[in-house]
Design a protein that fits this description.
Strands 3-4-5-2-1-6 form a 6-stranded mixed β-sheet. The protein contains 7 helices and 6 strands. The relative contact order is 0.13. The chain folds into 2 domains: 9-69; 74-204, Beta Polymerase, domain 2 (2-Layer Sandwich). The longest helix has 19 residues, at 9-27. The protein is globular. It is α+β, with helices and mostly antiparallel strands and 207 residues long. It has helices at residues 9-27, 31-42, 55-69, 74-91, 101-105, 125-132, 195-204; strands spanning 98-100, 114-120, 138-145, 148-159, 164-174, 192-193. The chain is 42% helix and 21% strand.
Amino acid sequence: MNATPTMTPSDDLTEMAQFAARLVVDEGLDYASARRQARKALGDGAGRTREALTTEMIEDEVRAHIALFCADTQPGELRALRTVARRWMHRLAEFRPHLGGAVWRGTATRQSAIRIDLFCDDPKAPEIALLNQHVAFETASKAIGGGEHLLVHSITEREGLLQDWVTVHLSVLDLDELRGALRPDARGRTWRGDLAALDRLMRESAP
């Protein structure tokens, strides 16, 4: 009787990356949350790989999933989200906003949140600016390890082109962290970009 063949580590990683990619595209999860859920759902026990499931691996599967299932709708949805991001970056220009996440990387769908990092000396300053602009928002303190927390202001608004609700997450970072904001990934692409870089992306991808 033949034994059931075991999956190779590369098979494990591919399966986990595909599972995580579906969560990113269909449910709008960020990559870290999708990675955790993939590990939890598929297991880390005997016979499963301990190799690192990188963000780049997940992103490759996200792009493949979009090409297969969302090719007709995704470009328009991405442009609408980038337009919203651009507007908020203009409104909060004094805090050196940098767009990150799926909207920056080009893998966003209507399920994706817009993630903008703000850099400033005073962590209360963005909150005051939002209040002065009469913006309704919610604030949360997100644990990021080492006993440190990240302050995140979240805004939900109706987006006209999508005819759907869009969430904008504004993460408040120390000004000193701006120096590492444009650190590239393993393939030389940046994880975030400023307003000028976003404008270039939108011009290059214009229909």
